[in-house]
């Protein structure tokens, strides 16, 4: 099915198991938190669900440890505020 959708398979380089660690972690999350709760009849439905997870939850609501336990959206908002405050000080 990946070929009919214009996708390519991606493999880690030999001897480098860390190549895809971030995306493998994300795949585990999206399956556990979203995909496993649905049955998709079409690729369009699956794509819509993935989009909803990423844009409607993962980037906007779900907290991330690397963002100081804020959502990426909240982290970006706070970063811009701090940056503006620093610029105003100088």
From TrEMBL:
PROSITE patterns: INTEGRASE. Residues 1-80 form the Integrase catalytic domain. GO terms for molecular function: nucleic acid binding. Pfam families: rve_3. InterPro entries: Integrase_cat-core, RNaseH-like_sf, RNaseH_sf, Transposase_IS3/IS150/IS904. One of its GO terms (biological process) is DNA integration. This is Integrase catalytic domain-containing protein.
């Amino acid at each position: 099915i990946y070929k009919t959708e214009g996708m390519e398979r991606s493999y880690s380089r030999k001897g480098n198991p860390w190549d895809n660690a971030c995306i493998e972690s994300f795949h585990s999350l999206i399956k556990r938190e979203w995909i496993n709760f649905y049955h998709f009849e079409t690729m369009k439905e699956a794509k819509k669900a993935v989009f909803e997870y990423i844009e409607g939850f993962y980037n906007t609501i779900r907290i991330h440890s690397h963002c100081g336990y804020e959502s990426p959206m909240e982290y970006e908002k706070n970063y811009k505020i701090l940056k503006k405050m620093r610029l105003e000080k100088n």
